[in-house]
Amino acid sequence: MPELVFISLFVIIFGIFYLHYSTRNKERLALIEKGADASIFFSAKAAQKRSTVPLWKVLILNLAVLLMGIGAGIFIGSILEAYTLIEDGVAYAGSIFLMAGIGLFVGFTLSKKLVEKE
Fold first, then answer.
1. Burial track 42-71 (b if 16+ CB lie within 10 A, e otherwise)
2. Helices 55-83, 88-117: inter-axial angle, 10-degree rounding
3. Is 91 buried (19+), middle (13-18) or exposed (0-12) by CB count in 10 A?
4. Does the structure show a pLDDT above 90 at 36?
5. What region does 54 belong to: left with phi over 0, alpha with psi -120 to 50, or beta?
6. pLDDT single digits (tens) 73-83
7. Does this model's pTM top 0.70?
8. Taking CA 27 as the corner, what is the angle to CA 12 and CA 16, rounded to the nearest 5 degrees?
9. Among 44, 93, 94, 107, which is disulfide-ready with 65 (CB 3.0 to 4.6 Å)?
10. Rounded Cα gap, residues 54 and 59, in angstroms
11. What's phi and psi for 70, nearest 5 deg?
């Protein structure tokens, strides 16, 4: 039974992407046939400035901050387990997810500043 759920989920996701891209392609072909300019397919913001920061730098930055957040979460979880009456599963899971979320937010903010800087 779980296989059926995963197969149906895959089929639904594939169908959504297929409909999106086929409809977009048909709309673009119709506009080209009518003589529309190809520049309408690109956003004005993307045409003005493309990011000069390589993608690998952004990925490494976000991954580093995420892993530091997970490490800090494990450390905080062990402190909570040792010095409070909080159960160990709750202390570890809660602190890991909290710090990983904070790490992702900090990584996003730093990546945004890096892109704006260059």
1. eeeeeeeeeeeeeeeebeebbeebbebbbe
2. 150
3. buried
4. no
5. beta
6. 999 999 999 99
7. no
8. 5
9. 107
10. 9
11. -65, -40
